[in-house]
Amino acid sequence: MQDNIFLMGVTQTWVKGTFTMKLTYTFEEQGFRLQVRQWLVDNLPKQPLNSFDTQKGFEQHRQWEKTLASGNWGMVTWPKEYGGRGCNLIEWLIFEEEYYRAGAPLRVNQNGIFLLGPTLMEYGTDEQKERFISAMASGDEIWAQGWSEPGAGSDMAAIRSKATRDGDEYVINGQKTWSSRAVFADWVFCMFRTDPDSSRHHGLSFVLVPLDAEGVTVRPIEQLNGLPGFAEIFFDNVRVPVFNRLGGEGEGWSIAMSTAGFERGLMLRSPARFQQAAKNLMGLYRAKRNDILDLSIEDAVVRCYMDAEAYALSTYQTASRLMSGGQIGAESSCNKIFWSELDIKIHDVAMRLLGSKGELEADSEDASAELGNWLDGFLFAQSGPIYAGTNEVQRNIIAERMLGMPRK
Amino acid sequence: MNFTYSEDQLTYRDTVAALLSGEVTADSIRARWTTRQGIDANLTQQLADMGLNALLVPESCGGLGLSELDFILLAQECGRVALPEPLVENAMAATAMLSDVASSDLAAANQCQDTLKQIATGNASVACGHWINPYVNMADTSHWLLLPHGDEVHLVSTQTVDLIAQRSSDPSRRISKVNWQPSRGTKIAGGQPGAELWRSALNRGALGVAAQLIGLAESILHRAVVFTTDREQFGRPVGANQAVKHLLADCAVSIEFAKPVIARAAYAVANSPTRADWAVSHAKVAASYAALLTVRHGMQVHGAMGYTWECDLQIWMKRCWAIDKTWGDAGFHKNRIHEWLLNPNALMGAEHTFGKSTSPSDESNSQQGAG
After folding, report:
1. Dihedral over Cα of B236, B245, B290, B47: its sign
2. Which chain B residues in 332-371 lie under 8 Å from chain A, judged by CB atoms?
3. What is the domain class of A24-108 according to CATH?
4. What pLDDT does A11 receive?
5. Does this complex have an ipTM over 0.90?
């Protein structure tokens, strides 16, 4: 019977409209959603956590990562042996939707779970996976990332920090900067020049460094909100075992570039985050719209809601394509531009709706519940078009690799 | 949950795209401009032979019995070549409207079935004079017109109406005002069913425009890339400059993020009509934004050439400017979305992107939450 239906499907798929787009959740997907929802209801912290860019908040968020891990919810797409659930990408999206719907804490280990984790899965040896992935999933080891240097920002191939081979160890000297989470994190993943005679993207290696190693100095950098969200890291004859190198010596560039391409393009910012922000914006708009004289505000609100929705639809489409064997291409650069500009638009509209109350910090005498986290979000949104590759760099990538325009 | 087109849908699209790109060239479009009717009769017949006019017509009436989701990929290809023939409007709005009546228990069902059979064989065509549009495109080459009288739907022979021709800035369009008298004999629906028919037609028409706009925009973008790669200034291609690259990259971003919105709208029209209004409005607004941006930037990077009659870019640009305002302009569609957003019962939030995400009882809870 099954076979017959299948054969019929193959010859008549299109004419009969079977085996085609289906934009509804299956019974299993609905069940999964309710399971996530219930777990979050049961386990969510009772009080909002402090910012993870404070010592206290960082430890609170580490604790939350441990709680997530205890229920195997830390990274649902990972295999079960690494503390995940082996979920597909649609289930991951459902998880994220419920996560933001519940207002659950931001992920303090996002550098680890979203960036390094997938890279380890793809390029790590079994021993490296054994050593690093479980501790990452459990929240025991929180990761910072160390790509940029003072002379290597958008131009990452200009990296100068060196890792010099000495027997079974590398001796590291140099400086990294704009390292997110580095002030309180346990480890950092970096690129170093392992071939002293090399230039540009040759001779670089991908190395993992414990931040408590001798010779490491971390100097906090205060962000726009006054908190030390990133740091400079100085390496002075820091010794790490060769074991800490991911992939072959000199292969750092290609590993960093392909850092499991789709996870990076797809997972760094899941759409639920922006849909939740857009929904909150609608709440604010409904409350304030009669006080607002700005004629363009209606248009801006509509645009925010539409774009948040469009980002979700696009992500579902990409997830479906990847699940049926497709690849993510240069169009992932479109994502970065779209969500970072959307985030700015949403928070810009919120600040316009709040008017002259918008500047109030949360501990002001006149601050009210209506202010929510809009100011924090507004400040953070400003960084979106800059981090993870500036939007100008993304536009170059789109123009050259997706549209095929001339490099020079 | 599966957000991909089927292999067959993509294959059929490629087949139609191959036919269109062979038959519809800038030269052949310019040739149409010099004729009164503005269409290529041979191509019209070819499209009919492929069943494209009757794609949404039920199989019982000789059509292919397919859905809007199957059609939008083809509509996009029609846009890509700037097809002057009114295939998308007629098949998506007018013919589908007749199909709705033919499948209903209205008295005119039989009459509409007969008309559809003629359309399916290529012996007749029908255009839609929707109340949202002041003019009908290519009315004089259609045998029948669907016209509104209040909520009533009338099926009128083109021979019995006065067509007052207007001149469009897009020389490919042949628009006219229709003067006519409703009669009992021409009425095929009225009251609530009539209003519903007009509402569905509006959604299908707007969806068809959205899909065409994306095809038009992709074509303009492609032309802009080719032009800026070939054209040299200061000893290198114009397109090597970041200022030029970034203009076109922004077009690509807006186009990429309009496509899934259009797919969702087509899916909603075909499968969950209660969500169609706002999904279609979103698609129309997103596609218009992408198309108008691409027109603006596409012309800019062509330099002075883009401002000439000689440059073929105008064929695509003028189509975008013209059809962007049809089947509901930006104001109409943004207002539909705005109204929906203010509806206390609107299902909002990520879990409701595709409608009710879980059980019905969950929906009532969420509605309270959203209100």
Report:
1. positive
2. 334, 337-338, 341-342, 348-351, 353-355, 357-359, 370
3. mainly alpha
4. 33
5. yes
